[in-house]
Amino acid sequence: MTRPGAVGPGLRHGRASLALSFGVQGVAFALLVTRIPALQDQYGISDGLLPVFLAAVPILAGAGSVLTEKVVARVRPGVVLRWAQPLVLLSLLGVGAGRQLWHIAVALGVFGLAVGALDASMNMMGVSLQRAYGRSIMLGFHAAYSLGGIAGASLAWVGARWDLSLFVSYLPVVAVLLPAALVGSRWYTEGRSPGGGVADPSKAAGGGLSFKLLLPLCLVMCFAYIGDSTVSNWSAKYLQDVLGSSEQMSTLPYNVYMVTTLLGRAVGDLGVRRFGAVAVVRGGSLLAAGGFAVVAGAPGAWVGMLGFTMLGLGLCVIVPQTFAAAGRLFPGNSDAAVARLNIFNYVGFLVGSPLVGVLGDAWSYRGAMLVPMVLVLATLVYARSFAPSPARYGGGHERPRTADVG
């Protein structure tokens, strides 16, 4: 494996360009999801029909991830990413430009498929670059995504504050980000095999992909996104309706969650290098579970805010480390492993919001917060899957000779 000290300018440029792609994607996704009320008004989408449109995006993204697994058997992930990112931005612009239901249906369909290909290819390249660096860098890429999400949400707030149409809000952002992404794509690169060549997953030793071995990581990914979608979809309602906050204060939990996610990911790689991936994932799981417990038992809004802060710091490390662990588990077929694992990102997103809603209506919203808490705690059962010596190397006791701990 390439030692950290041997990292050349090509890999450094590739790392920077990939971080830019993560950031651009964070902006684009935030611009879409934070302007949903404006989408309803522009297209006349009823409350009953809205969930159909919202569910279609992650379902099609899952299909895009499956398709990407097939495509990267013939072309490199960087090629997929180079074409998928412009499609995401252009389809976002299409969402803002339309007026009829079929317009948004087509635009969201393209957006969903492109997002699936984008997420899969970005994380494939991140895993490959981390292997080349020989140390944890995946959290840094996801920190760039969080930073982009904060920027996108801020831009959406400006658009809403000045009552700008979606097209007017999206056009200058796309006009800046699209050429930036295309220029940055010139430096896309991937990690190299110990012999100096780009690893070919179709020819590498140990290239078989066992879903049985991958399943624990798939479950962890699903549980993490159930927790994430709970915060995204229910934090404002919970703070206002259950904890009695003002309408203004109810907008704060998600913002705080995003900021703490960024901070946790910005320093998370250092934690992985110092303590190892297993310890960081265990610590993040315990902190996130504690956050859900605090939210469920909070006597007032400010204590609830503390719980959502804990959630951001805890959940933020799990997803990047899950992708990294899949790359270590299947070093000869990491692209396919990442593509399949990425599907459970969307499964968790689809399950999380209705799960809390159903439980909240049938039982109580305080009680509903305990369900994602238990699921996040279940990550502890699978923590050994994050070790640098996975089960395929001898049940977790034999350490392969590698500098990679993240």
From TrEMBL:
Gene3D superfamilies: MFS general substrate transporter like domains
Pfam (any one): MFS_1
InterPro entries: MFS (IPR011701), MFS_dom (IPR020846), MFS_trans_sf (IPR036259), MFS_Transporter (IPR051788)
Keyword Phosphoprotein carried by entry: no
Keywords attached to this entry: Membrane, Transmembrane, Transmembrane helix
Residues annotated as domain Major facilitator superfamily (MFS) profile: 213-406
Protein's cellular compartments: Cell membrane
Protein name as annotated: MFS transporter
Protein's organism: Streptomyces cyaneofuscatus
Organism placement in taxonomy: Bacteria, Bacillati, Actinomycetota, Actinomycetes, Kitasatosporales
